[in-house]
Amino acid sequence: MRGGSGGYLYFDNDSGCDDLQKSKLETAVWDATTLASYASDFPNSGAGARGRASGIFYMGPDYASQQTRIAGNLKRAWQFKTPETKEYITVSCKDTKNRCAERVDGKSVGGYAWTYSGWVYYYHYITLCPPFFTIDTLDTKIADVEKDLASGSTKYATDMTWLQNTGQFFLHELMHTRIANGADEPHIIDEYVNPIPKGEKPGTRDFKAYGPAHVHNLARRNLKQGGGATRASTNADSYAILANSIW
Q1: How far apart are CA 23 and CA 240, in angstroms?
Q2: Which residue from 112, 131, 138, 172 is spatially nearest to 30, judged by alpha carbons?
Q3: Predicted confidence band at 86 (pLDDT cuts at 50, 70, 90)?
Q4: Which helix (H) or strand (E) holds 10?
Q5: Does residue 1 have a pLDDT over 70?
Q6: Superfamily of domain 8-246
Q7: Which residues pair with 91 in a beta bridge?
Q8: Of 81, 87, 76, 83, nearest to 26 (Cα)?
Q9: Which of 18, 54, 90, 127 lies at a C-alpha separation of 20 to 30 Å from 27?
Q10: What is the pLDDT of residues 73-82, one digit of tens each?
Q11: Strand stretches in 56-214, DSSP E
Q12: What are the domain boundaries of the chain?
């Protein structure tokens, strides 16, 4: 299914996605690339110093050391929906790898993504789990924020947890594919706030850098203890929340 120019979402006959889900996914990928486009000139993104402020808060005080990587990955994510690319993502609403029942830090999995390296091409896949389809769209969040601001309240406009939307969520998954890193930059994973020593398994007190609080904790962690922009720039949710914050 192609929507607009550039890359597109491909649904196998057994994708398990009904028409309503397909429509929501088409909106999500458009919103995801809109967010990525707005932030792709990082840190010179948004009005005033918004890009820099968001960079410090969600990527780390040393964001300048990785700003070329950050901006490049966001630009490639944005270009998925431009004539710059003819890539496609195979999308499924079925649990293709049996991961939808997993819990991450007590929360349900909303989706997962991966890229398969073939002989000639990269093949990109994203599976969406049921919680994804309960999230509001970017337009819905914007309308609610405008209504809230008109009443004199800034509650919603300043709550990044509440501001999560399907565009932000899809951008997180898109960052996991090689569409985003261009096969040149390090693979973008789900980092832990506390870096796990090589060869060790995470313990019960190790948290993945999901959500605004943990993403910020990764960014502000002491640089000598694995914090800051070096690892934040290889963490998918850092990109998704950075772009949504700048927007």
Answers
A1: 21
A2: 138
A3: confident
A4: strand 8-11
A5: no
A6: Collagenase (Catalytic Domain) (3.40.390.10)
A7: 11, 126
A8: 81
A9: 54
A10: 999 999 998 8
A11: 88-92, 103-104, 107-108, 111-117, 122-128
A12: 8-246
